[in-house]
Each structure stands twice: as C-alpha cells, then as structure tokens.
C-alpha cells in the first residue's frame, strides 16, 4: 500500500515536472466543476421559485447566474481535455524515454534474453501515457466524489431521506469496479497472444526472412497462426468487456430506480407544501448531474485499470533492469594498463534468465595473459555463452571470473567493456556513413579518421572500402538511400569496428568470419592472429577465438573443448592430438572431409596446405 502510494505520488511528480502550468490549470478546471455543478442546481431552484413568486428581477438574476455557472463548467471541461492530453503525451514520452534509457544503457543484457521483461518493456513503451491517464482519472474521481458530496448536502436540505441516494451510487460504482477488474485481468491474459501475434505479423514484412518464408511457403501458416493468436486475445477481451457491460447496466438500473423513487416521493409532497416546485427542479437537476458524474467516474475507473497494469510493468522493468545499472554507476574502474596473470573462470556455472537448465556447469579455466585461446565444441556446447560471460554481458549464476585475480563483478561493466574488442557472428549492419559504421567501435574516436582507417586495415576490410563509391564517406544500407553490402562485406565492416578499441585486454572473436568465403576467411584469420600476437606483446592481451575452422584453432596456445557446458579437454594441438580424444576426432573428421584420410598422425601438414 505504502509502495503503491509512493509510486503514484512519483508519477504525479513526473506529471507536474512535465508541465507545471498545465497541471495547475487542470486542477483549477476540476475545482470549477466541483463548485459549479451544485451551484447550478441551487440557482435553477432559485429561478423557479422567483418565477413562481412573480419576481422577474429575482428570476432574471438567478437565470444569469445559473447560465454563468453552467457555462463555466462546460467551458472548463473542454479546456481540461486539451490540457490533459498535452500532459499525457509528454508523460508518455518521458516514460518511454526512461525505459529505453534503462534497457539500452544497462551494461548487461540479461533483461534482453528474458521474454517476460521484454514483454513488459514493450507494454510500457507503447502505453506509457496510460500512467498519466490513471493519475488524471484518480484526480477526476476525487473531484467527482466532492461534487457528489456537495450535491447530496444540497439535496438533504429538502429531506435527509434523499441521502439514501449515496449508497445507491456506491453500489453502481462497485458493480462497475468488479467489471473493470475483470477487464484488467483480461488485458493481462491477452498480452501474450497479442505480442506473439504482433511478432508473427512483423515476420511477414521483415526483408531478412522474406526469402525463407517464400521458399518454405510458410507465409500462409504464419498468417493463420497470427489470426489464431489474435482470435484468442479477442475472445478473452470480448468476454471480459461483455461481463463488465452487464454489471454496469445492472448498476444503472439500481440508480435509476432509486432516483425515480426519490422524484416520485418529492412530487407527492408538493401538495402538502413540504416540498416546493423549486426543490423538485433542483432534485431533477442534481439527478442529471449525478448521472453525468457517475458516468465520468465509471469512465475514470476504466481508464485507471490500463494505467495500473502499465505502472506495474514499469515497476517490474525498473526492478529487473536497474540494479546492475546502479551497481555499475557506483563503482570505479581500477583496471590496470596490462594483464599480468590473465583471466580465470572459477567454478563458474550459468543459467540463462527465465530458464532453469544450466548451460555451463562448474567451469574452472585459466586463460594466461598473452595467449590465444580457442573454444571448440559441437553446436550448443556453450562457446558463445562463455564469450558472453567474459565480455560481461551476463553475470555468472554461481562462481566467478577473475581478471588478474580481481573478480570481474567488482569492476564497472562499462570500464571492463572498454578494454574488450570483439567480432561476433551476429554482427550489426549499422546503416550510417562507412566511417561512422566503423568508428562507433570506439565512440571517443568516431571522428578520428586515421584511427578508422587503421581499424579497416587491421581487419582486412580495405577491399570493402575500396569498392565503395565514396570510400569511407559512403552511406551504407538502403534505408537512407545508401549502398547495400553483401553479408560478408557487412561482416568485415563489423570486424573493423571491433578493431577501433585500442589497447584491449581481451579480444573475443566468435565465428567472426561465418559470412566470408574460405579465401577471405583465411586472410582475415591470418591478420587477426598477427593482431592478437602484437596485442599480447603490448598488453598481455588474451584472445579468445570460437571457430569451427580447425586450421585456425590448431594455432592457438590453448584449446578448450566444451561438451554440453563442461570442459572435456584442454591443451595445445599436439597435446590434444596425442591424447586421441574428442578434439583429435573432430580435427581428423574435418581434415578428412577436405582432403580425404591422411597418413600423418597429427594432420599438421595436410591442414596447413588446405588453407
Ligand atoms: N538466450 C538464451 N536463452 C536460453 N538459452 C540459451 C540462450 N542462448 C543460448 N542458449 C542455450 O545455451 C546453450 C549453449 O548455447 P551457446 O550459444 O553458448 O552454444 P555454442 O556452443 O556457441 O553454439 P553454436 O556453435 O551453435 O554457436 C544451448 O543449449 C542454447 O540452447
């Protein structure tokens, strides 16, 4: 309760900051509403009584005042709608920006691998404005409650019995609330099928999958599944809306019966003189106002429920994503200029967020400073997961990583990341000027042309740049009318981006040549290896390579063989070939698939000739 109060006052604070004068103006219009409505009813009664008394001056004054009161009420409602929408848009923008900042700047990526968090991020980004709606609705409901209270006081001057309308109003609102709670639960339930449906729909116009969808003929099935998910969501929502509608109608029936009974009673009292004609007119006017007020409260409650769901999602995103960001912000760097001992994995296990199966179990590894290490293993054995942990994208579930004996989790992830250079198989096609697409590998040097040219050279991407019509000034990608590149060319640009980092302590190359032809691949690896050796001499840099290309792997100082998340062998090529285990089997298999069975027991000459 306290947490929820704090949350909503924080939202109210955000709205105030978004536009103080608009918020103040909305509060003023609400105050006009609260006072204006009962005043109108009283003035109308005064007009009726004066007219019946034959007092034209009194009737005229009351008529003018009543008209002014009503004009002020209706005018203020129009102005309020406009101001409310302005603030709502601003708050929506602020909330979306906050969530995007949290998710984009969070040093680790655990949240991006967790479908639940992604769902919540989607919801908050798309519906952030509903939080403002909820605050407005809450204020409106508070104002309406005051209005109703004032009108009841006015009615009670005719007869205290008319106060019985209050419980009736509460019953009407309660029935509406029950219906709206059901709608809110339905919105939560429908979220998943709607998200799945939206993702499927996106697939149909995603150029990256368009070819495969056509070749496999799966386009129709994707649309059918989208329809199915959409129908599931609609069914849930329609049912809840229908139930809410029935409950609301029942509430109105109770109200109409009660107010009707009050009017009939008042009419029967006119002859006896206990109730005047003005009183009857006033009760009628108040009944009409209360009807509008209850309707507005009902609308307010329904707007509130969506904002409550969004606010809960917002809280969840902040709770899930923010802790490591705060931790990172609170720490300082303290990473030395060069590696002396190296990097170690100590009894490290890892399970992806939102899953229960460990993908790495109890790894104990030493990656000595100045070495090149190759990770080998079948698909899914955990190579990329090790890379993600080494680069600080995820934190180990248990155990730790040490850099020269210092636990990685005591360093700010950004500071560590600044000393890591990387080339990935899932590279980004950054559609910008070629020099920017490379330069962002080190934002501090994005405008440093000699650095960019050096990175292009180190990565062996000069041929790609040479083929561009305006060299490094060429716009890449078709989105902004630039030149499109082949998969291999994009990958070389990504590799060059990785080379922007100067003085890395860790270089990771996770299948960085997967999109290249064998000749380019061989050339890139040759350059990468000499780069790795140069870095090793300069900074004791550790280079970790993930590759299925054994002629590269064999050159590593240390080869680590993974199988289902565990280390099954490690050593250099000669050691592992002599051991005759998994590595020797995989190596021989690949060698034979290229050139047929070899007589050389280690296969060294054969593989070297091959590439
Ligand atoms: N984001 C994720 N969420 C849940 N499980 C994942 C995720 N990414 C990978 N996995 C699982 O972790 C295991 C190891 O995957 P990983 O990508 O590390 O293997 P790999 O050896 O690099 O495979 P490949 O050679 O195919 O790239 C696999 O069983 C995979 O299904």
TrEMBL record:
Keywords: ATP-binding, Membrane, Nucleotide-binding, Transmembrane, Transmembrane helix
SMART domains from the UniProt entry: AAA
Pfam families: ABC_tran
Broad class of the protein's primary localization: membrane
Cellular component GO terms held in the UniProt record: plasma membrane
All residue ranges annotated as the ABC transporter domain in the record: 343-589
Compartments where located: Cell membrane
Bilayer-spanning residue ranges: 57-74, 135-154, 160-176, 244-267
One MF annotation (Gene Ontology) recorded for this entry: ATPase-coupled lipid transmembrane transporter activity
Organism listed in the record: Umezawaea tangerina
Nucleotide-binding listed as a keyword: yes
Its membrane topology: Multi-pass membrane protein
Protein name as it appears in the record: ATP-binding cassette subfamily B protein
Entry annotated with the keyword Mitochondrion: no
């Amino acid at each position: 309760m306290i947490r929820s109060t704090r949350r909503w006052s924080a939202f109210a604070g955000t709205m105030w900051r978004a536009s103080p004068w608009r918020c103040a103006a909305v509060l003023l219009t609400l105050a006009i509403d609260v006072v204006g409505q009962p005043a109108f009813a009283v003035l109308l009664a005064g007009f009726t009584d004066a007219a019946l008394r034959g007092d034209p001056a009194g009737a005229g004054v009351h008529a003018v005042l009543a008209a002014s009161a009503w004009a002020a009420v209706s005018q203020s409602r129009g102005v309020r709608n406009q101001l409310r929408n302005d603030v709502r848009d601003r708050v929506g923008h602020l909330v979306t920006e906050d969530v995007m900042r949290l998710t984009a700047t969070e040093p680790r990526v655990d949240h991006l691998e967790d479908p639940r968090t992604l769902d919540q991020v989607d919801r908050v980004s798309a519906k952030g404005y509903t939080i403002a709606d909820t605050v407005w609705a809450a204020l409106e409901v508070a104002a309406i409650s005051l209005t109703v209270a004032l009108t009841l006081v006015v009615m009670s001057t005719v007869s205290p019995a008319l106060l019985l309308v209050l419980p009736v109003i509460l019953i009407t609102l309660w029935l509406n609330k029950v219906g709206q709670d059901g709608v809110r639960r339905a919105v939560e339930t429908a979220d998943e099928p709607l998200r799945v449906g939206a993702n499927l729909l996106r697939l149909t116009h995603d150029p990256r999958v368009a070819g495969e969808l056509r070749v496999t003929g799966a386009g129709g099935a994707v649309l059918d599944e989208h329809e199915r998910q959409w129908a599931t969501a609609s069914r849930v929502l329609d049912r809840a809306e229908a139930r809410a509608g029935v409950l609301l109608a029942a509430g109105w029936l109770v109200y109409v019966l009660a107010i009707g009974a009050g009017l009939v009673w008042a009419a029967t009292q006119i002859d006896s003189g206990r109730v005047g004609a003005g009183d009857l007119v006033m009760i009628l006017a108040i009944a009409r106002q209360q009807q509008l007020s209850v309707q507005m409260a009902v609308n307010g409650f329904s707007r509130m429920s969506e904002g409550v769901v969004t606010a809960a999602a917002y809280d969840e995103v902040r709770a899930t994503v923010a802790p490591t960001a705060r931790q990172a912000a609170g720490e300082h760097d303290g990473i030395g200029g060069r590696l002396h001992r190296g990097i170690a994995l100590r009894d490290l296990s890892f399970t992806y967020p939102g899953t229960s199966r460990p993908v790495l179990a109890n790894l104990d590894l030493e990656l000595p400073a100045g070495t090149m290490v190759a990770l080998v293993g079948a698909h899914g054995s955990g190579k990329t997961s090790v890379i993600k942990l080494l680069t600080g994208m995820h934190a180990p579930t248990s155990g730790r990583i040490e850099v020269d004996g210092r636990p990685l989790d005591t360093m700010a992830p950004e500071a560590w990341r600044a000393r890591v250079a990387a080339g990935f198989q899932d590279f980004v096609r950054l559609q910008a000027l070629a020099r920017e697409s490379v330069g962002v590998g080190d934002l501090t040097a994005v405008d440093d042309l000699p650095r960019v040219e050096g990175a292009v050279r180190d990565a062996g991407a000069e041929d790609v740049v040479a083929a561009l019509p305006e060299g490094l000034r060429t716009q890449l990608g078709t989105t902004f009318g630039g030149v499109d590149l082949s998969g291999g060319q994009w990958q070389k640009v990504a590799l060059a981006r990785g080379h922007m980092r100067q003085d890395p302590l860790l270089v990771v190359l996770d299948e960085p040549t997967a999109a290249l032809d064998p000749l380019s691949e061989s050339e890139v690896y040759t350059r990468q290896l000499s780069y790795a050796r140069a870095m090793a001499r300069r900074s004791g840099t550790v280079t970790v390579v993930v590759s299925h290309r054994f002629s590269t792997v064999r050159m590593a100082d240390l080869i680590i063989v993974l199988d289902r998340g565990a280390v099954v062998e490690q050593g250099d090529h000669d050691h592992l070939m002599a051991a005759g285990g998994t590595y020797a089997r995989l190596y021989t298999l690949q060698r034979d698939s290229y050139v047929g069975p070899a007589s050389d027991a280690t296969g060294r000459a054969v593989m070297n000739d091959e590439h």
